[in-house]
Amino acid sequence: MKKPIFAVCALALAVSCTLAGCGGNNNQQQEPVKTTSFEELRSYYDELAKGEIKQEVATTEARNKYYTFEGDENLLPPGVYDKLEDIVYKTYSRLYSKYGTDYNPPKITIYIDAAYSGKGANYTSGKKIYINPNWFVDNPDDYDSIICALMGTVQTYNASAPDWLKSSIRAYARDQFRSSYADKNWFVTTTYEGVSYEEGDVHGAAFLKWVNSTTDTDIVYRLNRALQNGTYKEEFWKDETGLTFGQLWTSFQKNS
Question: Tell me: the pLDDT tens digits for 217-233?
C-alpha cells in the first residue's frame, strides 16, 4: 500500500540550506534541522537513513511529542540511556510509518523500571515499554532490543496470532531497522539452522525473511496488516504466495 509523502520538498530545501549554508561560511556551525510534525519527522529520517542528511544536525522540536522516557536513567550503565533514546528518536517514526495503522502515531512511554523482575531486556504493555536496567549489565551491546519493543507498541493486533509469529515479526523489525549501535553478533539470516519456527524470535524471523526474499511479496508488511485488520487466517500464506504455510516451511528447510 502506497503512502503519501508529506513536506518532503520543503524539508529537503531546509536541509540543503542547512548543510550547504546557503552560500554562507562553511566553517560556521551548522544550524539544526527542526521538524514540527510527524510527517516531517518521518520524511526527515527516511532521508537520514539514505545518508542524504548529516547526523550532526539531527534535532527536532517534535521529539517529546511522540515518546517520553520515565524512571531513573542512572539505573542504566553509563552511556546506555543516550543510545536507547537516540535509537527511539531515529526509529519510531520510520517504523510506525511502515507498520502503523494510520498517520497519527500515539505517544509512547519508555519506563526504566527499577522493580523489573522478569527476564529479557524489556516488555511492552499497550503503549508503554518497561526497560530492565539490569539487562544491560550482562548484555552491554543489546541496544537494538528497544526496536523489538517499539514494534510491540505498533502491532495492536485484532486477530489471534501465535506467540511465535508475534515475536518473529518483532525480531524481523529489529533486523530491518537495525541501528548504528547494533550488536554485530545479533542478526537475522535467511538460512534454516535446524530450529523450529515455533521457537520464535530470530528463528521465526529467518523464515519470514526468507519468504520475503523468495516471493518478493513484502510478506511481513502484509502479514502485520492482516493481523491488525483482524483478517488473518491460515489461508493468508497461500493467498499471498501461492503456497501453503506447510509448503513454505518445507521449502525453507530444504532450500535456504
Answer: 789 999 999 999 999 99
